[in-house]
What we know:
By secondary structure, this protein is α/β, with parallel strands linked by helices. Helices cover about 40% and strands about 15% of the residues.
Amino acid sequence: MAGKVILVTGATRGIGRAAVHKIASTGATMILVGRDKSRVDEIVSEAKEISGCGPVSGEICDLLDQDEIRKLAERFKSQFTQLDVLINNAGAIFTKKIKTAAGFERTWALNHNAYFLLTILLKEQLLAAPNARIISTASEAHRPGKMGWDDLQYDKRGNRNGWSSYCQSKLANILFTKELARRTEGKGVTANCIHPGFVNTGFSRNNGFIGRVIMFLTWPAQRNAKRGAESIVWLATSPAAENLNGEYVYNCKPKKPTKYARDMDDAARLWNLSEEMTDTVGIW
């Protein structure tokens, strides 16, 4: 991987952090994105201590803010002409229904809009790389998910303390991957998404005491972050994954998602709506 450029969002915790630790030894150039400077500095320092580590740097970005995503993309493009691997990993569930300044429910804004916008803005760098790979973190939580086409931001529907919106966003991750794979077919870019499993990380602890209690009570069913990151690392670095495109991967193997996640009409519809939500119509 020496000479290849990898950008990782959600790099400071959980499976993102574990993936960075594993990929660092390959010698790739890594750009690690997080919203907290101290944690970004920490993961950059950790990566540099790993034998075989290539150039590594950190970027601060609040991915809930589309303006910040655009600035991140511009900073990246000012330094690099190609992007070999884009890992869209940052994600969360928000139990309180609060909208971003742009008017999007936060779980949707972070888990879907941020993936979509960053990927679209880095189109030219991805196409410039030989055999570029795009990897997005989805989840088995997509299975109960439904796309509320007339109410994506949950202005009308009940949100079950954020769970319904989270499931919808994870379904959107797979639909986005399917349509992206269709659009990149034959262009030297592949797009896949993963289910990391139920991982023992800081996930949901942003939701206060209840979130921490839930994670504590479900601890026996959780896997560690290293196991959760395995599919990301495999898709990013393995020659065996080079030609995989449009797949939902679990334990380094394609897994069949729900019929709703395989609906290409819905995938195209989501793409068109996402372009409108991120002001990127016609870029890709």
